Amino acid sequence: MTGPPHDAERVAAELAAIPLFSALGEEGVARAARAGLSRHYRPGQIIFHQGDPGESLYALLDGMVKVVFSTEQGDEIVLNVLGRGETFGELALLDGSPRSASIVAVRPAWAFALPRARLLELMREHPALADEFLHLLGGLVRRLTEQAADLAFLDLGGRLAKLLLHLAGKHGGADGVVSLPGLTQSDLAALIGASRPAVNRALQSLVARNLIAVEGRTITLLDVAALRKRGGL
Amino acid sequence: MTGPPHDAERVAAELAAIPLFSALGEEGVARAARAGLSRHYRPGQIIFHQGDPGESLYALLDGMVKVVFSTEQGDEIVLNVLGRGETFGELALLDGSPRSASIVAVRPAWAFALPRARLLELMREHPALADEFLHLLGGLVRRLTEQAADLAFLDLGGRLAKLLLHLAGKHGGADGVVSLPGLTQSDLAALIGASRPAVNRALQSLVARNLIAVEGRTITLLDVAALRKRGGL
DNA sequence: GTCCGGATGTGTTCCGCATCACATTCCGGA
DNA sequence: TCCGGAATGTGATGCGGAACACATCCGGAC
């Protein structure tokens, strides 16, 4: 699983496209790539578990993963879905505390892990990296705040509309086509804090009003303006 | 409003009791106190507005404030209630982005504002301060995550029970007495994303089962174990 | 092709809580 | 002291969505 030496170059090529690491410059990116390890994961595999000790920051070089928060009772909420170029496990760097969520691959994934100590070294030498990291955290806090507000104020249909717009922006094509292999309706339900049957019905309702089209796991946004309105934007 | 020079000593005395600043040592705390300004606010006054440019980190030296997030439609959710020794406005330091929430005094408050540039200077000289700040952010992210999960999984009664336990821990006496002048039932409702009448009825229900006692705005927790169970702990 | 397990589509029932509409009590200011 | 506005307590109604229960459907293993 651990990447052989020549992998470092391929890792560096991917890291260079990620804002957080590109701040390091060409030389720094190469050093970062050598300072960590990359692994491949199959769909359904768990990259790390909620509660595990957290000692690394991860960057998703390719594929897709979901961020899952579970309660002791076994209920699950999906906090986010990450694609190529996004990072996770940031909290490990803030304090040494255990992972607050699990990361599960939803399709074949290639992830790069950089140990806390290595990252801190890099930050000392490249203040721009620290800056980028703080930006990252700012975005994280804002997103979580918005998510809480959405749960409080929007109904299921509104949250679903907003979710589809977000997914289209992050993982979709230019024409509103969102292809989501590996993401089931159960996942969508867990993303907006709803039951799976309710999500199904909400999707049907959007289809009936010609706001979206669904075929298999590909969703096409037909009326972005109406969806934005439905989502309170 | 701006503190006259001799105030810096009183500010320093308060800052020394705050983990974030105590990391600076006696000398550093004194410098920090001189680098910012403190002001007093009356109940209902707004310390800063959501959407304002954010250029300072605040420390609440005394009193109590609420963190309010508003939608364009005018709906409000109270993200947190802060007491003496807590900080707010952290996001201003991460990026230069506008305030993501408003801060409103719920009782007479004394707050200290430290400009971003000053704080960054201090951080450069005192790495321990940066460490503490990252801890702070970690706690913030964790709390927001939990809040989202609670909205998704707990019913109104559960969220209320959990809220009361939290408030008792932060602002209450040792014996489970939580005195909350300035905090109305509407505020409690906005803290858990519920309507005001529903909160009233939920409180009555807890009283009827002898889990709490209410007199005016003082709530006494009578059966902490049962409350914890009700809140899913 | 044949199975089988998981994902998807629907119907039915029921309950929590938002919403509206008041009565009542509390409190600060003139 | 009285007054007025805000904060509380309660009732009645309606609806969204959870929970449960199935009937397909689809895709991969063999």
Automatic annotation (TrEMBL), chains A, B:
Segments forming domain HTH crp-type: 154-225
Statement: the UniProt record of this protein carries the keyword Transit peptide: no
Cellular compartments per GO CC: cytosol
PROSITE patterns: CNMP_BINDING_2 (PS00889), CNMP_BINDING_3 (PS50042), HTH_CRP_2 (PS51063)
Molecular functions per Gene Ontology: DNA binding; DNA-binding transcription factor activity; kinase activity
Keywords: DNA-binding, Kinase, Transcription, Transcription regulation, Transferase
Domain annotation Cyclic nucleotide-binding: ranges: 20-123
UniProt key word Kinase: yes
Origin: domain of life: Bacteria
Ranges that cross the membrane: none
Name of the molecule in the record: cAMP-binding domain of CRP or a regulatory subunit of cAMP-dependent protein kinases
